[in-house]
């Protein structure tokens, strides 16, 4: 029973969010960090989160290599999404973003996603 007298079942802990943070600096180069709902963060080369993340993480680990180009990494990421998503991926149900040393963060437009990668 809650302090307000309400007998409805209560959650034992609040909701949390998992988060991927990507960036680039002059010391570590490209960096990707995963933060779990507890606030713990870990650096990764490739990371999948959310529904289907176990299968996706396996595909990323198997497919990722240090010498890949940006285009090859994007193809790996999109190919992995195609494997684990129940519906066909499109510009309406996914977003693609890049973090590069020269341009920083760039969220791809729907046209870039459709013309360059997804369809």
Task: Walk me through this protein's architecture.
This protein is α+β, with helices and mostly antiparallel strands and 119 residues long. 5% of the residues are buried. It has helices spanning 53-63, 70-84, 110-118, and strands at 19-25, 29-35, 41-44, 97-100, 104-107. The chain has a three-stranded antiparallel sheet with strand order 1-2-3, with no helix packed on it. It contains three helices and five strands.
Relevant terms:
three-stranded antiparallel beta sheet; alpha+beta; 119 residues; two-stranded antiparallel ribbon; 3 helices; 29% helix
Return the string of H and E elements: EEEHHEEH
Shape: globular
Count the strands? Answer: 5
- Major β-sheet strand ordering: 1-2-3
Q: Count every helix, treating DSSP H or I runs of 4 or more residues as helices.
A: 3
Unreliable runs: none
- Separation of the first and last Cα atoms: 53 Å
Q: Which whole number gives the mean pLDDT?
A: 83
Tell me the radius of gyration: 18 Å
Helical residues, percent: 25-40%
Main β sheet profile = 3 strands, antiparallel
Summing up helix and strand content along with how strands pair, one would put the structural category as alpha+beta
The amount of beta strand, in percent, is: 15-25%
């Amino acid at each position: 029973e809650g302090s307000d007298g309400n007998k409805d079942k209560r959650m034992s802990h609040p909701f949390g969010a998992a988060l991927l943070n990507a960036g680039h600096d002059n010391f570590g180069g490209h960096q990707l960090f995963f933060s779990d709902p507890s606030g713990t963060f870990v650096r990764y080369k490739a990371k999948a989160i959310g529904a289907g993340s176990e299968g996706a993480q396996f595909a990323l680990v198997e497919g990722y290599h240090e010498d890949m180009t940006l285009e090859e990494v994007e193809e790996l990421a999109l190919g992995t999404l195609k494997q684990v998503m129940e519906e066909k991926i499109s510009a309406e149900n996914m977003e693609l973003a890049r973090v590069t040393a020269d341009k920083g963060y760039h969220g791809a437009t729907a046209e870039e996603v459709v013309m360059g990668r997804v369809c």
